[in-house]
Amino acid sequence: MKELPKRLLGIIIVMILVIALIFVMLRIIPGDPASVLLNEHVSQANIDRLTKSMGLDKSLPEQFFGYLGGVLRGDLGQSYYMQQPVSSLILQAFPYTIRLTLLSIVFAWTMGIVSGIFSAMYNDHFPDYLFRGTALLGISVPVFMVALFLQYLFYYRLSLLPLVYDGSIVSMILPAIALGWNSAGSVARLMRSSLMDELDANYMDTARAKGLIYKKAVIFHAFKNAILPVITMMALQLAEMLSGAVITESVFSIPGLGKLALTALQTRDMPLLQGTVLFTAFLIAVGGILADFINTLLNPRLRLG
Amino acid sequence: MSDFLLKISNLTVSVTRNKQDIPIVKGIDMDIPRGKIVGLVGESGCGKSMTAKSIMGILPRSAHMNGSILWNDPDGSQTEITGLKEKELRKMCGPKIGMVFQEPMTSLNPMMKIGDQVAEVLFIHKLVKNRSEAKEKVIRTLGEVGIPEPERHYNSYPHRISGGMRQRVMIAMAVICEPSLLIADEPTTALDVTIEAQILKLIRHMCETHNMSALVITHNMGVVSTLCDKVYVMYMGRILERAPVDQLFKTPIHPYTRGLLSSIPRIHANPEYLATIPGNTPEFGKETVGCDFCLRCSDDQRRCFFEKPKEAEIEKDHFVSCFSANNRSK
Amino acid sequence: MIKLLRQNKTALISGAVILVVIILSTLAPLLSKYSETSQDLAHRLMAPGNGHLFGTDELGRDVLTRILYGTRVSLFIALLPTALAVVVGTFAGVCSALFNGVIDFAIMRFADVMLSIPGMLLSMVVLYTFGGSLSSVVIALILIEWGGIARVVRTRALEIYQKEYIEAAIITGAGQGRIIFFHIIPNLIPTLIVLFTLNIPSSILAESTLSFLGIGIQPPQVSLGLMTGYSRQYLFQMPWLSLAPSGMVMLLVLSFNFLGDAIRDILDPKRRQL
């Protein structure tokens, strides 16, 4: 990872731009956030006091650099609505989201990789059509539909799993499946096309000429090569999953980042929304570095020496 | 008669495309004697590689084969390869038959160390007890095929070594189980001319020291002359002429063979003139009634267009399928 | 050839489904005797049948009629913001490819920034500023999608720019504008069609998701996601209320996915991933 410092610098630049962008976008409409929070009967003096305490009386550049400085110190401002520091709200919510995301990544990858392999190996036969159809269905179903369907089936019909998140790991199963469903579909599709390319590779003939039966040659040789693009997709998937987390957490009442962002939007809590968006962008940047790192670790052609 | 190692009879391979069977190999007979190097010569796409792949059972999934491939093991037992199940066939690949492929750039798995790729053969066939024994044997073989500092290169990945070196690795992989037959499919086509000579010398050397037979597939008559004992000339999925190498080079009979031989560029030849065989290989799948070569042949006769010539022995061990040769032998 | 034909068959079927859906939803006012907003509190939450094929919702409105009207919104969302995103993305991508240096750097960094924020959260920022409405959703979708399109277009335009025929055009004295409009854009068109069809499903999904959460399209406008969101409370007693509108979303997305796959395979066979 000779490129790591360069990558880190790039990410810092992008993050500063993200902050600037969000900052500007949230303030395009010249409104008075303070007056939104208080009702009409409050006197102008009170509005002014609140505006001042929120730092909104300063000029926009002043506000921005003040905020940027705060971000560097880990201070994302004060939530209007919940009267707590945004950073501590995010840190409370983060573990739920990370648990949910990791669980659904495990689900998505297991399902996606296994069905992608089957699909590629039985190309143009029944299992291929079955898995391909399922994968296409997987990427076509809205997350909320999967969530509602799972609730209906596993809670109402079968009484197997809890309706909403109650703190136990069991109640995390349905949300994880709902969230991972889409990704499982795209992993399966990528795995299939990537593996199909590798099955035609010359080294597969070599492997069989060595005496490996076809299935073992697929597992020991083609798979190792085919998984690389799938890992590259991981960073992209993370962004999609954090998007999906908003809806999954809302349907299953998980107090994670997505729920936090939604609450922020619904209560017009600008610092909170700003902070959550920023934090998820940061998570995705970290995920990108992680995917690169794993790729370098696995792919000898990217390694030096 | 039992001194052959491998006997192919009436082998046909066809590829299914658009629900149509396109014949690629159209019933060939061939035998590989023990301890001899046999060459299979022909232009690109004439079915040479398919023949080799059908012996190894690694035809593409769209292809299927018929006919018989009989393996006459040095221990006396005979096996019909075409009748074997995948699992049994794989047991032969490695210990009995080794194969070197055309493209050393892509025939090695880019994700594995070359040493591990060679060692894998040993593990598959359980020829070694543990890793250290395998490693020792691999390093010895890598040294034998001329890889400098085999200990260091054991841990190299394929993209770090040159094409010639990769082909040496392929050879090491093919011979490490000491097979009785080595199949080399265009082993030097992708290499520089200087490297080509080294690799050919290496193949010859390995065959002699390990008492191996070899089937060398090439389009290059030069390779045949330096390496082989016996030659099969293939065109459009059929064998047109077969003979021991000296006889073929001294008295080539079939117009196609003659064309191939005169196409070898020579230093002292007239530089203005580069001999070629006129025309192109006809499309596959269009079966003709006459001789396959009739459209490109220099001494075509009327009957060439309406009848397939039968194979005739014109001198000892020298067979030709051509009407002009039939006339000559009479 | 067979393979192409079979892919065309899926393209045909999915295309036919989309066409039928378009016709039905366009003709909705003629086909249905109910209006999408007329309430009939005497006939609330009726089971399917009895003149209402999918029953009625919590305000006694005909669900089937509302689905047809909601489909109109989904189709609008499928086409307009996606097309605009392709236009913006193409413009940015071509500019980036042609004017390397500061402009290229600025555009691509901007695209990076957009792409590093999850789409859902980026649209939430837009919705915070402009409030929940159809036009805010359109703006949000353009912002989410243009960056990815710009990246692909830039790469493709650079590939085209290095082709011999561009060099030939330059040598014969063609101006920058001529090269862009007569050489680069026409050669980009297959890529653009593929990008357009591939982005349609995500547009539809994003709109329905935002509306489901209640932050996208607002009542009294109809949206399939919004309908599902409201029917959620009756999920266990009347599952069809949620199933019907979300099933329609699925059908649309599935058809567009099939169509997009087929078009990509035909126009761009070498590029399985975009």
Structural notes for this entry:
The complex is a heterotrimer of chains A (305), B (330) and C (274). Chain A has 305 residues and is mainly α. Chain A has helices at residues 4-25, 33-37, 44-53, 60-72, 86-121, 126-140, 143-157, 173-199, 202-209, 214-251, 257-266, 270-298. Chain B has helices at residues 48-56, 86-92, 114-124, 131-144, 150-153, 163-175, 193-210, 221-227, 245-250, 255-262, 323-329; strands at 4-17, 20-33, 37-41, 63-72, 78-80, 97-100, 181-185, 213-218, 230-235, 238-244, 311-315, 318-321. Chain B is an alpha/beta fold. The longest helix of chain B is centred in the middle third of the chain and has 18 residues, at 193-210. Chain B contains 11 helices and 12 strands. With 274 residues, chain C is an all-alpha fold. Chain C is built from 10 helices and no strands. Chain C starts with a helix and ends in a 7-residue tail after the last helix. The model of chain C has no long low-confidence stretch (mean pLDDT 82).
User: How much of the polypeptide of chain B forms β-strand, as a percent range?
Assistant: 25-35%
Q: Helical residue percent of chain B?
A: 25-40%
CATH superfamily of chain B: P-loop containing nucleotide triphosphate hydrolases
**Major beta sheet of chain C, specifics?**
none
User: Can you name the CATH architecture of chain B?
Assistant: 3-Layer(aba) Sandwich
End-to-end span of chain B in angstroms?
27 Å
Q: What's the helical proportion of residues of chain C?
A: over 70%
Broad structural category of chain C: mainly alpha
* Structural domains of chain B: how many: 1
Question: Outline of chain B, from the CA principal axes?
Answer: globular
Tell me about the largest β-sheet of chain B: 8 strands, mixed
The greatest inter-chain interface is formed by: A-C, 50 and 46 residues
> What general form of chain C does the structure show?
elongated
